[in-house]
Task: structure prediction
Amino acid sequence: MQFFGGSEISPSPPPPTVSGNNAHMLYVFNRNGVCLLYREWNRPLKTLNPQQDHKLMFGLLFSLKSLTAKMDPTSAEKGNLGVPQLPGQGCSFHSFRTNTYKLSFMESPSGIKIILVTHPRTGDLRESLKYIYNLYVEYVVKNPLYSPGAPIKCELFNSTLDQYVRGLG
Amino acid sequence: MAAIYSLYIINKSGGLIFYKDYGSAGRMDTNDSLRLASLWHSMHAISQQLSPVNGCAGIELLQADNFDLHCFQSLTGTKFFVVCEPGSPHMESLLKYIYELYTDYVLKNPFYEMEMPIRCELFDINLSQAVQKDRVALLGR
Result:
């Protein structure tokens, strides 16, 4: 697993899957459900205020994770539905698709959740999310002025992220 | 190795009206399947709320680490979803075919009460044939 040991950003970012800018938004949550970062590039429809939106997103991920952990058809011992699970425990999910968007999800061993919402026809973004996690480690965690659990306000991180996501397609 | 692990049909209010297991590891009891079905119903609804653009109709495909979940929602709000191996092809068409079977053998059955659990022998028979046929198509490739 590259994303938790490496001391430098993986040498080259994974190649973009589709050309053109089609990322809608990105969320970063910590393990307590605090939204550390919210970026949006293209979001014409807003049904809720930002705070409610973050809560709903975190709730959706939490419940989907307990659903997949319980539904996992390959393991016999699954425990009860809705019991909170540690990161990496139980069967998780990496993306879902609706007719209007695709949501890709990654959880690090420390419980950092990265969510990228893109066009529904985007390919597999698991490598890209790992790369974004690497950016987070490099520019946020290693920033001496950043205190863990606080919203991310690192300019360098935001600009690198913007650049990467725009190139992502 | 079965390509399809299980099939669920839920009515428009999230109640499980049909559940069939085709060989998942570990038994799921009735309560669990009911709770999973209604949980899926609400997740489906929330995913529509979070859409960045207009006209979202809910989750079509959920890719988990060990399985894929394909969901089809009919115009009346009945949801059909199938849990299968990651990367199984032809699941959309299988779901549409199951929907056809549902309209033919369940909705046209005069003894069937709407939104109630499905107990129709003909539906069961045709459904198991459809799933077998799909399995054969997958094995034949």
Observations:
- Residues 50-71 of chain A form the longest helix (22 residues).
